[in-house]
Amino acid sequence: MSALKVIEGEVDYIVPAAGKPCKTWYKAIGDFHASNSRRPLVALHGGPGVNHSYLLILSDLTEAHSIPLIVYDQIGNGNSTHLPEKMGDISFWTDQLFLDELTNLLTRLGVKEYDLLGHSWGGMLASRHAAKQSAGMKHLVLASAPASVKLWAKYQNMLRAELPPDVQAVLDEHEKNGTMDSAEYQVAIGVFHSRYLCKVDPLPKPVAEGFEWMQKDPTVFLTMNGPNEFDTTGSLKEWTMIPDAHKINVPTLLTNGRYDEAQDPTVAPFFHEIPHVKWAHFAESSHMSHFEERERFMEIVGNFLVSGQ
Hints:
This protein is of the alpha/beta class. The protein has one domain (6-307): Alpha/Beta hydrolase fold, catalytic domain (Rossmann fold, 3-Layer(aba) Sandwich). Helix content is 38%, strand content 16%. Strands 1-2-4-3-5-6-7-8 form an 8-stranded mixed β-sheet, with helices on both faces. Helix 3 (121-131) links the parallel strand 5 and strand 6. The longest helix is centred in the N-terminal third of the chain and has 15 residues, at 95-109. The chain is globular, with a radius of gyration of 18 Å. The two termini are 28 Å apart. It holds the Pfam family Abhydrolase_1. It comes from Mycena sanguinolenta. Residues 40-293 form the AB hydrolase-1 domain.
């Protein structure tokens, strides 16, 4: 990493409805403006409500293939502008807010051609952006990204039903009583996460950092998703890409894991609808294949981006 050029900065993001100046924080690893540089890979983090840290591992691709990496914190998250005063405002926290932010970032950084990788919620966002057929976008990677929130919730709850009965009972009790911030509930949800979010033990520090940011400011997650993974009540409740996935006209790679929160049926509509698509399945992974099967993940994604297939 020491030999790679690393830039951190902020770009202005004008959001009239925010009522105050906003900025998007970003980090670039590798020189994406160099004349001999490959197209940068722009990576969109999940949540919604975590931050960029757990995607810095994608700099493996920079090391191996000289692919510059650009990560950023979406508005309301991490080092970007926070808007806790917008808690509960579902008319403000929409996917269009984040689509506009991505376009703004690319424009202000002068990125004309790029590949896009989105993980989880970031993949949902990336798929929506790709369906708009930006001329500069050349490849798409959808990592553990559901094609619809209703499918996501359905299979999340099927996974939940496989938890030990005592863990399910704790989850049920605290959700009924509205005490999901209790230590007991957090332990129970931790059991779910250790099976279906990330099987690496202990949890990698960059992944844990994302959850810490969500606890510091839960505005985006609570407003867009709701209090937990199992029942989306926020602005994403009816979200789906199934009717529009066929509009994605760039080569696309889907990835997910055997134990993934994004189970196969939640990813499958992308495979069926996108014209130029491959699907890589990770047999030993849950939701964080880039950590759980790091070497294989980087090999598959790197070859996809470099080969152009």
